[in-house]
């Protein structure tokens, strides 16, 4: 979802906005279902909930993700929102979203590390533990590539509307 403005950078903005919002709400819903599954798993095994750093920062990330989505929906998809407010909020939205993406990568890595450390075989680095470490390295590389594409000016979206008509265009 974070890349739709880069991948579809030469298309009209409204369908891209909708796709961006839909992909993010799907990601949010999947995350909520995953958190619910973790709580149910912990309850079935009598494991305490919200006891680790991973669970705390994961919950914070989920709440921040929801706040980011709602604020983006209101600011960018409500037609009555003034263009000046959208323009002022856009850098905040992009920066906060990029930072949240990096934060969520950190949450994933802390979860992998937590799972590996709980394994009795971790010091021997058996297949499961090596796979966990490799997944963590892949997540860092993935995050770095995505962050680069989102922040590098060469990949920015090309405005199809001339600057003098932008104020008239709500898309």
From TrEMBL:
It is found in: Membrane. It is a multi-pass membrane protein. It holds the Pfam family Cytochrom_B561. SMART domains: B561. GO terms for molecular function: metal ion binding; oxidoreductase activity. Keywords: Electron transport, Heme, Iron, Membrane, Metal-binding, Transmembrane, Transmembrane helix, Transport. Gene3D superfamilies: 1.20.120.1770. One of its GO terms (cellular component) is membrane. InterPro entries: CYB561/CYBRD1-like (IPR043205), Cyt_b561/ferric_Rdtase_TM (IPR006593). It comes from the Eukaryota. This is Cytochrome b reductase 1. Its cofactor is heme b. PROSITE patterns: CYTOCHROME_B561. Residues 1-151 form the Cytochrome b561 domain. The chain crosses the membrane at residues 21-39, 51-78, 90-112, 132-150.
